[in-house]
Amino acid sequence: MEAKQVTVGLIVGNRGFFPSHLCEAGRRDMIAVLEKAGFRVIALTPGDTTHGSIESLGDARKCAALFDAHRAEIGGIVVTLPNFGDERAIANAIRWSGLRVPVLVQATPDRPGTMTIQDRRDSFCGKMSACNNLRQYGIPYTLTRNHTSAPDSESFAADLRDFAATCRVLSGLRNLRIGSLGARPAAFNTVRYSEKMLERAGISVESLDLFELFGWVNKMKDDDAAVAAKLAEIRAYVKSDKVPVASLVKMAKFGAAVEKWMRDKELSATAIQCWTAMEEFFGVVPCTCMSMMSNRLLPSACEVDIMGTVSMQALALASGRPSALVDWNNNYGDDPDKGVIFHCSNLPKDVFSCEAGQEAEMDYQEIIAGTVGKENTFGTVVGRVRKSPFTYLRVSTDEERGVMAAYTGEGDLTDDPLETFGGFGVVRIPRLQELLRLICMNGFEHHVAVNLSATARGVREALDRYLGWQVHLHE
User: Fold this and answer.
1) 27 in a domain, yes or no?
2) Integer Cα distance of 246 and 251 in angstroms
3) What is the three-class DSSP state of 382?
4) Sign of the torsion formed by the C-alpha atoms of 211, 212, 215 and 221
5) Which of 76, 126, 216, 341 has its CA 20 to 30 A from that of 120?
6) Do 362 and 242 touch, CB atoms closer than 8 A?
7) How many domains does the chain have?
8) Does one domain contain both 247 and 142?
9) Residues forming a β-bridge with 13
10) How far apart are the first and last CA of the chain?
11) Rounded-to-integer distance, Cα 181 and Cα 214, Å
């Protein structure tokens, strides 16, 4: 799976009494680096302005008009400073473009042997002026790891990876529509949230009663085309030899009904009431259907955890890979930096081990089978999450403070031995005890989204700097 390509508008800053020839090479080199990193670039050409750079009021107008003409495509702006650059032209171009996208400010370093008047850049100093003006204009921006960074450096390549994630997350969360299917389980206050705070952040929730969905399901025949297609998809997705055919047909009807609802309401993600009405009155768990949606980058969270869905979606947008929602579930022996993550599970197939004999398979939900009967709980996707670096994220609505709050960070999924059921893995996170204390002291939920990628910095930047949420980065 590949992350969505990001189109960026490129601004090449120039200031006439510094060597303008540096802008010619700087523009050319930056475009090559951006395209190699997977970006599509929209920029002024040397036919538009001197070396395709901006310095004057007229240059800024041309740049703004170009960006405005491509506003539906541009997901971010890169400002490169081959020399000091004109801070007003940069700020004006961004303001006049009307774009509300992430802005990355890069300054090319001087070299001790090229500090004469013919080749001196002073980008080191010019970056401060550019940022000062962006701040005055109320334009949020992102900095590189190092104050100055050569376009072809490893550190700038990492900056670009983070920036791409930031652009994808911001674009994908704005105007996101989530489906809320069923009521929150009565015993689960932990997944309460403020729908109004989400709406103010640009995220809408479309609710549907389980009764209505099951009404649609009951009208379906076993041989309906949509049911047959979904049944074939389920069987191709995960091994289901242990599961009765009648249960598979129920899952197919449920999956077909949910996906039609999502198409009709233009939904990109869901949160579903998965216990216990589903099992008692319908006779399966929805986990496999949810796993399949998450695996197709349509995140689906259990227990009507809408904020869990937001967290899953942010990580999926950042990486282009499926996210899972898990419990911070258990300690792992006496190691303070290790723990167990777990769910029943609806984890996407992408996160499971691919080793022979360890592949995920469909089974029954062991936890609630004792209450509603094993025959009513088929449909979980069980197995071990594979060894990999991973990013975790939890977003919450903090009504007491009136803010959107979150924490994120990175760690490793290990291959430490563990015998259990459901979908599970062992994690190692440096200073895990400090993270757990932060979770408890700030009232975060025990659910957390995980993604087999390293995207925490880019995600934090999108949520914190550009959406104005309060985000803790655990490093």
Assistant:
1) yes
2) 9
3) strand
4) negative
5) 76
6) yes
7) 2
8) no
9) 54
10) 27
11) 11
What is the DSSP code (8-state) at residue 184? Answer: P
**Cβ-based neighbour number of residue 363 at 10 Å:** 25
Which amino acid does the sequence have at 54?
I
Q: What is the number of residues in the chain?
A: 475
- Residue whose token pair is 């007491």: 400
Question: What confidence tens digit (pLDDT) does each residue in 380-394 have?
Answer: 999 999 999 999 999
**450: which strand partners?**
324, 392
Per-residue pLDDT for 199 more than 90?
yes
Task: Kindly state whether residue 2 falls inside one of the protein's structural domains.
Answer: no
Band the pLDDT of 266: cuts 50, 70, 90.
very high
Give the list of residues 6+ apart from residue 215 with CB closer than 8 angstroms, or none: none
Cβ burial of 418 (10 Å; 0-12, 13-18, 19+) is: middle
3-state secondary structure of 280: helix
Which helix (H) or strand (E) covers residue 383, if one does?
A: strand 378-384
Asked, for residue 221, whether it belongs to a domain, the answer is yes
Cis peptide bond upstream of 276, omega within 30: yes
188 and 116 both lie in a single domain? no
Rounded CA gap, 4 and 145, in Å?
24
Q: Is residue 59 part of a domain?
A: yes
**Exposure pattern of 164-184 as b/e (b: 16+ CB <10 Å)?**
bbbbbbbbbbeebebbbbbeb
Average pLDDT over residues 391-419: 97
Confidence of residue 164 (pLDDT cuts 50, 70, 90): very high
Whole-angstrom distance, CA of residue 134 vs CA of residue 131 = 5
Largest CA distance in the chain: 82
Q: Is there a contact between 366 and 273 (Cβ–Cβ < 8 Å)?
A: no
Gap between the Cα atoms of 425 and 428, Å rounded: 10
Residue 179 has φ and ψ, to the nearest 5°, of: -90, 130
Q: Which residue has the tokens 């490129």?
A: 10
Residues 61 and 109 in one domain: yes
CATH number at residue 43: 3.40.50.10940
Domain end position, chosen among 145, 173, 201 = 173
Tokens of 244: 């009765």
Question: Domain boundary residue among 173, 205, 230?
Answer: 173
Residues of the domain holding 151: 7-173
pLDDT of 357 strictly over 90: no
pLDDT category, 116, cuts 50, 70, 90? low
Q: Tell the residue number behind the tokens 């496999």, with chain if given.
A: 288
